[in-house]
Design goal:
Low-confidence stretches: 1-8
Mean pLDDT: 78
Order of helices and strands: HHHHHHHH
Organism: Rhizophagus irregularis (strain DAOM 181602 / DAOM 197198 / MUCL 43194)
Distance between the termini: 37 Å
Structural class: mainly alpha
Keywords: DNA-binding, Metal-binding, Nucleus, Transcription, Transcription regulation, Zinc
Number of strands: 0
Strand content: under 5%
GO molecular function: DNA binding; zinc ion binding
Protein name: Xylanolytic transcriptional activator regulatory domain-containing protein
Number of domains: 1
Number of helices: 8
Pfam family, one: Fungal_trans
């Protein structure tokens, strides 16, 4: 038998939400276990260029929309023993590319309208491999891809919608849902998505 709940009071709605939480549990995967995917973007192999784009992202974009926790991201970016999500790195580099005149940041070196597209398209190719188990880096990358794509196509609404749905599913909006074992940086990073 299936019961339909029609809530007329806040108390009923809270009870329904608590009951649903028992049935809808989404496993969260640690950031230390990204999908076994390699980016097909050779530009990510150039550590100096990638570092330049990451710095441009934090210098120019981050102050206006601080989606990432800089210390948490940079800790993963700089420490080769910690895993960096290639999806998130491609998204950050796509946005960072918007702030450089370096022709290497363009898919077509002579066409400034293709800036960041190599990173963006590489991220698009990887997205399907990141949906099996939710991660903070995936939700953040989807949000950033939506922003990058905002002026390029209608697909941006889909990415922002998917990022929002994923963040809500992972209960990033609920501070009480964070495991006590999370580091201060990871707690702060989750709050920003």
């Amino acid at each position: 038998m299936i019961k339909l709940y029609i809530s007329t009071t806040l108390q009923n709605e809270i009870q329904v939400r608590q009951q649903l939480k028992r049935y809808v549990q989404v496993p969260q995967v640690e950031e230390s276990s990204p999908p076994r995917i390699q980016s097909n973007n050779a530009l990510l192999d150039d550590v100096n260029f990638t570092g330049h784009l990451v710095n441009l992202y934090f210098k120019n974009f981050h102050p206006f929309l601080p989606v990432l926790h800089k210390a948490y991201f940079m800790e993963r970016f700089n420490d080769k023993n910690k895993l960096m999500s290639p999806l998130l790195l491609n998204a950050v580099c796509a946005i960072g590319s918007s702030y450089t005149n370096n022709p290497s940041a363009r898919q077509d070196g002579n066409n400034p309208y293709t800036v960041g597209l190599a990173f963006y398209e590489s991220a698009q190719d990887m997205v399907k491999h990141y949906f099996d188990l939710p991660r903070l880096s995936t939700a953040t990358a989807l949000f950033l891809l939506g922003i990058f794509d905002a002026l390029r196509s209608l697909r941006s609404r889909m990415y922002v919608g998917m990022a929002t749905t994923l963040a809500i599913t992972m209960r990033f909006h609920d501070k009480n849902a964070f495991p006590e074992t999370l580091s201060v940086y990871e707690r702060e990073a989750r709050k920003r998505v």
